Amino acid sequence: MKILYGVQATGNGHITRARVMEEALAARGISVDYIFSGRPAEKLFDMEAFGEFTVRKGLTFTVESGRIDYFKTFWQADLRTLWKDMRTLNVQDYDIVITDFEPITAWAARWAGKPCIGLGHQYAFRFPIPKAQDSWLARQVMRWFAPASISFGAHWHHFGAPILPPLIHVADAPESADPDRVLVYLPFEDLAQVLALIEPLENYLFDVFTDAKEPGQYGHIHIHPFGRDNFQQCLRQCESVICNAGFELASEALHLGKRILVKPVHGQMEQASNALALKQLGYGTAMDHLSMERIAEWLSTAPVVQVSYPDVAAAVVEWLLAGEWSKPDDLSAQLWRTVESV
Question: Where do transmembrane segments lie in this chain (predicted)?
Answer without folding.
Answer: none
